[in-house]
Structures are given as structure tokens and as C-alpha cells.
Amino acid sequence: MWRNNKNQRLPEQLFKVVMWGIAVLFAVFLTGLAGLLIGDLPKAGNMPDISNFESSELKGLREQQGSVSQKNAAIHQRLEQEQLVLNDAQSRYDEAKQSFDAWVQTRKATGQFEQNPLVLERTKQLDDLRDTVSRSRQTVEQLQHDVLNNDQAVSTGRMSELEQEARDAYETASNAHDLKIFLWRLLLTLPALLLAAWLFVNKRGSRYWPFVWGFIFFALVAFFVELVPYLPSYGGYVRYVVGLLLLGVGGHFGIKKMQVYMQRKQEEEQSMLQSTQEQRRQAFSYEQALGHLAKGVCPSCERPLSTSEPNGLADYCVHCGLCAYKNCKRCNTRCSTFFKFCSSCGDALQAKDEA
Known about the structure:
- α1 runs parallel beside α5 (about 210-225), α2 (about 55-105) packs antiparallel against α3 (about 115-155) and α4 (about 155-200) runs antiparallel to α5 (about 210-225).
- A hairpin with a 6-residue loop joins β1 (about 325) and β2 (about 335).
- The longest helix is centred in the first third of the chain and has 51 residues, at about 55-105.
- The protein is mainly alpha-helical and about 350 residues long.
- The chain has a two-stranded antiparallel ribbon with strand order 1-2.
- It has 9 helices and 2 strands.
- The chain is elongated and about 145 Å long.
């Protein structure tokens, strides 16, 4: 149904393309309709906000922290100014001290050095500068102490505990909200997925296959777009478990299908041993047989035909004994036994065989 056989008639190939287009359009319209239905369903509620789970104590501590931050911001601004004043005073004192020490070393001091008026004046100036530096340093230290006291006034440890409690409550509510959304979507998509699986197993080759495959495409889109992104995570465990379950179910049905196929082929091979070549050829459709031969595969057992012959593929399948090629009785041209007419002379092949 989905195979592209070059031996089909051109209208058949065009018809198949049109049918696949119908299948895709059918899936598109179903997806749009499902989106509208989901939009009109009752909502799962607003996404919870973490502020709804914060206690009044935590809010009070945050307000206190905000007030302290404002006070500390003003103190820091003043601290920067006082630090500049201290640096300037310290610089002037260092310069004056250095100049005074050099002046003392080069001066010829008298016996009563400490009573020298000029020395006393220079010493007093140096003491005044040192006092200025000391006062500026005390101011800076006091401001730093105020910042530390303000920070200690707020219980950061208690605030961290309350914030963790709020986060835990928020995560619980958020997971419940996500689960509610997922269950709503699962309620809609699960029947579609089950119906699509049933259609795939029983109706994918029916005369209405474009609509069957269109619905299957729609179910796949609904699964991967409308359901999988909303699958709860819970640390990733749920998604991995669901993935393993899907792989297990798919693997089970795949293995079962392959076993049924192998058993059917064995039964066919056993029954074909008791049938004539013509009866065996009539068991396959014309397009199916030519499609297999074009790929070098036996239409009966679906194994590769032997290529050991000088002229290409062997006349007989070495696995099941089906005659796939023989010479035309009129012109002796080698043709497939499934051809209705000779490709060289146009003589009717199958009619002569039956005769």
C-alpha cells in the first residue's frame, strides 16, 4: 500500500500520491480540531506561585532585611566619603611626618631642643594632623560596626529555613499542578492512541487506508506534542520508566509479529512444495512479484535470488525452488515468469504456459 512500485500504472502512482496527501490533510485537520477541543476544556488552574507559600514570618523578615539594606546602603555611601577623608588625612600626615623627620635630621639642634619654639610649632602641627587621622579612622570603624550590627539584626539562618519550607511546598503544589494537566491531556489522547493502535493492526491495508493512516499520524502528533512534553518528571524517573514500558510493549509485539511471520513463511514453503509452479505464481499479485524481482528477491520466500549465473539472477530460487526466469518459446529471450508478455517479441507468455 505504501510501496512505490515502478511497475504500477502511472494513474495508480498518481492516485497513491493523492491518497497520501489526503492522509496528511486529514491528520492536519484532526490536529487542529483537537487543539480547539483542548482549549475549550476546563482549565487546570493557574500555575502556583512561590509567594503563596511564604509564611508571614518570612515576609516580615524580608521586610526587615529590605529596611536594613536601605540603611546599609546609606551607611555605605557615607562610609565611602569618610574613607576618602581618612585617606586624604593619612596622606597629609605622612607627608608632614616625613618632612618633619627630614627637617630634624638636617637642623642643628640646640641643647634645649624641646624648648625651641619652631620645633614646638612643627610638632604641634604634626599632632593636629595625627588627631585628624585618628578621628577619621574612628568614624570609619564606627560606620563599619553599624553595618555589621544591622546585618546581625536580621536572622539569616531562620530566613533560609523558612525559604526552604516555602520551596518544598511550592514544588509539591507545582508537581500536583503538572500531574493534573497531564491527566487531562491523557484523558483525551489515550483513546486516540488506543484507536490508532487498533487501526494500525487491523485496518492499515483496508480500502480506506488514507483515513486510517491520517488518524495514525494525528495520534502520533497528539502523543509527542500534546502529551509527552507534559509528562511529569519527578527527577526523571517517570519519563525513563514510561520509555522502558513503551520499548517493552513495542518490543513484545514486534517479536511476536516476527515469530508469526516466520511461522507463516515456513508453512507457505511446506505447502508450496506440493504445488505446481503455476499455482505458486498465482499466489502473488502481479505488482508484488515484479517489485520483489526488481530488488533481486524471491517473491515466494523473500530471500535473495542467487547471482551465480553468468547472465545475472538464477532462473530458480535456490531456497524454495520457485521458477523466476525462463526463455520465451518464440524468440528464446530470457524473461520473468511473472511477465504477461515477452519483452522482445511481445508474445503472450502466461497464455502459452497455461496451454
